[in-house]
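Collaborator request, handled under Task 6.
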Amino acid sequence: MRLGLFDNFQVDPTDPTDDATFYARRLADLALADGLGFDLACTAERHFLAQYRCPAPGPWLGAASQRTTRMRLGVLAYTLPLHPPAALAEEVAVLDQLTGGRLEVGLGLGHRPEELAAVGIDPAERAASYRERLAVLRALWSGGRVTLETPRTTVHEVAIHPLPAQQPHPPLWYPGTDPVVAGWAGSQGMGLAVGFASTDRLLPSAVAHAAGVRRAAGGEEPAAPVPGVALMRHVYLAEDDARARAEMVEDLLRLRAAVRPDEGDEGGRSDRRAEAEAGIAAMVRDEQVIAGGPETVADGIARACGALGATTFLANPYVAGIDEGRVHRALRLLAGEVRTRVSAAVGAGAGRGDAVAV
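C-alpha cells returned to the collaborator:
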C-alpha cells in the first residue's frame, strides 16, 4: 500500500493568501511530506476556473522535483485532448528526467466538456482524440519517429529528445469512474485513479479495471507491472475524533459566514451550528471525507482500499478553512500512526485473503 497526497489547489474563500505565497507554502508542504516518507504526491489540471490554482501542472512538477528527493510526483491528470501529443511527450520526458525517474502520468478524457469547447475542441471528439494521442505518446516515448494525420491529430516525422528516464515511459493512469472505460484502461496497462465518491459507486470501475488487466494478459499475470487502483479522498485528521469533528464544525461555520455575510451574527446561531454538525456528519457518511483521529481515519482508509483492491491511497488534507499548522499535523499523523495502522490492517487482510490483498 502506497501512501500519497492529492492536491487540486482549491481556493479557500477565507484565505487571502496571494498566488505566489500559496505556491511557496505548498512546495514547503511537499518538502515536509518527502521527509516524512510519503510515497507519492499528485496534482491536477484545471482550466478557466477561479476556484482552482492548477492550470499548469508541468511547471508545478518541475518546481516540486527540486524540493523533493524520494517521493514520486504525478499529475491526475493531464486533459489529453487539450494537449498536442508531441509537445506533451517532450514535457513528460523532461519532467521524468528532472525527477530522476520519479514521475507518474495521468491522462484524462476531460470531464468538463466546457473546458474543451472553450478552446475550440469538440467534446464529442474527445474519445477518438484520446486514443490517437495516447498511441502517439507511447510511440514517441519509445524512441520512434512518428507520422499521423487525422482531423484531430497531426504529427509529421516527429521524434523527441530527451526520452523519459523510465522506459518505455512513466507509469500511466486513467482517472475516471465509467466501468467500460476503466476496463479499457486496464487492458492498456494503465492504472485507475478514482475518488471523491462513495465506495459503492466506485466499485464497478475497480472491478472492471481488474478484469481488463486480466483480459489483456490472457488470464495470466501481466507481463509488465500495471499501476493498479489509486483511491483519492479528502482527509481531516486530529488527535482524536471529538477534536476533529469540533474543528470541522468551526471551519464550516466560518466558511458559511464568509460566503453568506448577510446572515449576521445575531439570531439563529444555534441553528447554524446544528446545521454545520449535520453537514459534517453527512459528509463523513457519504464518504466525501474521512475524518477523525488516527484510528478512525486508518480504519476508513483500510476499509475503502480493501473493498476496491486499491494499492495506492492519496489523501487531500486541504479541507477548506484549515490552517497550515493543521495541515502539518495531518501530514505527520498520516505518515506515522495512520500509516502503521493501515499497514497492519492490510497485512491482516492479506492473511485472511480479504479484498485488501488484491
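The cover message to the collaborator said: "Residues 318 and 327 are 7 Å apart (CA to CA). Residues 2-237+288-357 form a domain with the TIM Barrel fold (CATH 3.20.20.30). Please let us know whether this matches your experimental observations."
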